[in-house]
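From the pipeline queue, job 12 of 40. The input is one protein chain; the requested action is below.

Action: predict structure.
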Amino acid sequence: MLHIVGGLVFFYLLFRLILPLPASCPVKIAAALALLLATQQHVLARAFFGGLSSPELPRPVLIVQSLLLVSSLFLFLLVLLRDAAALLPRAARRIAGRSGERGGGGFSPGRRIFLGTCLAVIPAAYGIRGGITVPQVRATQSSLPRLPAELDGLRIAHISDLHIGPLLLQKWTEAVVDTVNGLEPDLIVVTGDIVDGLPSRRAESVAPLKKLRARHGVFACAGNHEYYSNFRAWMRAFSALDMDMLLNERRVLNIGGRQLIMAGVTDIAAARFGLPLPDRDAALDGAPEDAVRILLAHRPSDAADNAASGVDLQLSGHTHGGQILGLRRIVAEFNEGYLYGWYQVQGMRLYVGSGAGLWNGFPVRLGVPSEIAHITLRCDGV
């Protein structure tokens, strides 16, 4: 069965671009087959290559596939916008007037397809490159009302949505680790969606994570993608990489003579696998009341409830910042309005990272760069 979005793109471009071409039947058939392959990669990945999030194909093949998929989506949008504009009387008259002035009916169908393809491929290639590049550091800071003076200036390296997988391999992970370690942070936190694929397939690519270094530890919570690829095996693997996985758990850190609570919850994707759901109360149970509480939660959507439970700072990811400027509002709607950056939620501060990597299903960023957030906490107004 055709993927609904890919099917829509395929049939629209088939009837609006390929069939009207003044070309022979074999050429049209070849073009239609190429378009079908470009738009149905999700179906092919699920059926033959191990799954949508982690198709087991060589990286160069995946990059070409991604370019074809994203280009076809952009081309679909361009044709749709052109057709919508042609329905407006003024736009239609202007188009007709310009065509008349040129005396030849404008560009030929083949020339229009060529120009449209260029306009689609160029941003697609740029966006894919932006999606798989090593993330840059974003330095930011925030004050926490209950932060004691002894913890003023505490620095946290926040990484979300690494999605280490068939596109983002060992060298990429090494570069991320080197960048994070170069910050010399007090704490490193990883807020889920660390991997795509089974531990046996990703062992080499995730191995550099063992080199992460911070003065007071490396902590992480689970994201939804950890559940898709043998959750229990990955939790064991992460522990072997010296990552302290907080699964509805907390740790009490002693820093500068003051206590700091680091807690983390699981993800609602656990419901599909009969595993423990996020339990903030369990994570904070017994935590000292006067200690600042930092909560790692992959999704930002429960921020209001977390604030009501006395959390001072929530660190999340999941949204990828919307990935493309035009999708930001849509992505925010699925995450209770939270998308990227700092939010004030009642008395709690929430930071949503744009993500360090991307999942293979849509590996493109345009106007929404990947990041490693370097957060400095302050005890007074900033």
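Job complete. The chain is about 40% helix and 15% strand.
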